[in-house]
Amino acid sequence: MIKSAPKEAAQKRIRIALAGNPNTGKTTLFNRLTGARAKVGNYPGVTVDRHFGEIQLAHSGRAELQDVPGTYSLSARSAEEQLALCAIAGIPPLERPDLVVVVLDATQLERNLYLALQVIELGLPVLLALNMFDRLEPEQLRIDPKALSKTLGVPAVGLCAQTGLGMSELLSAMDDALVRPESARASAPWLPKGQGIDKDLEAIAKCIPGAWLPQESQAKDQNRKQALALWALLSIDENDELEGIPLDLRQCVLDRRNAATADNRETDKEVIRARYEWIEASAPSFLIESGDAGQSWTDRVDRILLHPALGFGIFLLLMGVVFQSLFTWADPAIGWIESLVGSVGGFVESQLPTGLFSELIVSGVIEGVGSVLVFLPQILLLFFFIGLMEDTGYIARVAFIMDRLMKLLGLHGRAFVPMLSGYACAVPAILGTRTMERRRDRMLTMMVVPLMTCSARLPVYGLLIAALVPPGDNRSFTQGLLMVAMYLFSTVIAFIAAAVLGRTLFKGPNVPLLLEMPPYRRPHFASVLRMMLQKSSVFVREAGTVIMACTIIMWALLSFPRQDQVSEAPPSAVQSEQVAGAESQSGLQLRQSYAGRIGRWMEPTIEPLGFDWKIGIGLIGAFAAREVFVSTLAIVYDLSEDEDENSLALRDKIRNERRSDGSKLYTPLVCLSLMVFFALACQCMSTLAVVKRETNSYRWPAFMFAYMTVLAWVASFIVYQGGKLIGFS
Length: 729
What we know:
This protein is mainly alpha-helical.
């Protein structure tokens, strides 16, 4: 029977760490226990930050639950893996947890147990949560949690985080482990023994900082010291990226590694082999696998999806279906949002007196933000499809089939995971590079991720493709093909950029891909929808803050100085405008505005790309955020045309826009040149800010902005001028 915790223990803040390999459902369990809205994914490295929540236990009271970054081992060589170790072991400045719940994939138990053994070695109270327990029968497996608990010496509970099976048993076991911590501690009989390894650990243990060792009994202190010495021996070397390691500890480890090499000993293999041999020898006592299980469903599907040619073709086909749906499925919702925002704008305009304030609210705020929100259905669909691929396990397969190509670029397939995430947004994709072990790989991936076509480019592509493709029976199909072509173009350019940078600024040897293939699972639609809404809400908040602020600033630049505040334009200029018949009174206002002056000042630099000064105004706004280009054009053409049409008919307006000589401005060649520019230019302040934070330097965001802007100008120049040379207009 569980006894209540002592009064002094009840007053202490209880900390529980949730640890586990990637793909074990750890974050799903965290959400189930705390109700927190943490992102759930199904590929290695999805959890890149710690998350906190609170749970209520019957006897121990309220406890803080911490979701530790997923890791395959505590033997860390990257900063991300070091964070997992510090959170579990309680290495300063992080505080030691009172209990570590290790989440294991019950269908991959033997492989997952390696991390569990390392956590047990630290001498902390440990509870094993056997997730996906309901999938054992289809996988022809059977696990006895009581036998597992007896073998390892710590409690074990079977559960399913997705459905809630076993949650009450887990909470009860957590409560019991906190009240009676000794029942959840165990020795480590699997550790290697021998004169060589004993000398290594004895020497290194003397250099373990005192701050890493809590004031406990001598036996516990010695066990923890030995476990940390073992971690240091397997983690510290000449190429690690660990931070905060005392110099004497680092030197001691390097000396012992050199001594082992001189004695022809491989300490890493010695320790790892001992752990896995113990798991293999002990497994029959708690794990029963049917001899006639045959090839699993996952293996049969992988024979197709991991085929070098067929698998790559299926991936391209799936991407084509996704991008085609962005137009076909989203069109009705886009029309509905257009009508709604247009009605709101008309109603507000009818209620306000004519003047500057009315123009600000209607043209600057409602129409500007509305012209971006109109593309929200496409962005929702994109996040939905990416969420499905993550949750089913397909993302890991994409990394595998892309590995052969990525090796040619000096990377491995794991780098394609953040690059694929870049299709949604470059900011979380750049944060996702933290899970890559080598700094060289992280930097190289970081520099090319913004070239992937993110969701912020969708409003621009949607506007230009809709203007480029005339209405017709095959309109949606042609638009979908053009969208796929732009995504393929940006991907190819990102690969080329990676190949060039990998052979110049970021030279380094190739490393092999080590990637776990999770079994295929039914998507948890609640988690997918939660992720989709979270990501899309970021877009909406941006539309309501940054984009609206930029839109209002652009409206002010376009509206001032008023014509009655400036001197008349030279008669010859006014006459030429009237003769051309290209501009009305509002057109003259636009030309005389601050934005018009800036646009005409920069026009010589963008004219070779096929752009005029009005497009230049849009490009200025787009450097704050790509989506602002659409809202800026909505303001530009609303002010420059005296029409009764709603400004959300922007696609029709730019389709009919003319140059001063009467020729069409947005020709197919100009639209293509403009899309190429947007595909390659780094027009996102958020991306530059996160690169600065991740690299802790202004040098790399400045380099990224410079090389991408030059690349965009050159590529757009080649498209436009090359197209004119071969007869396109």
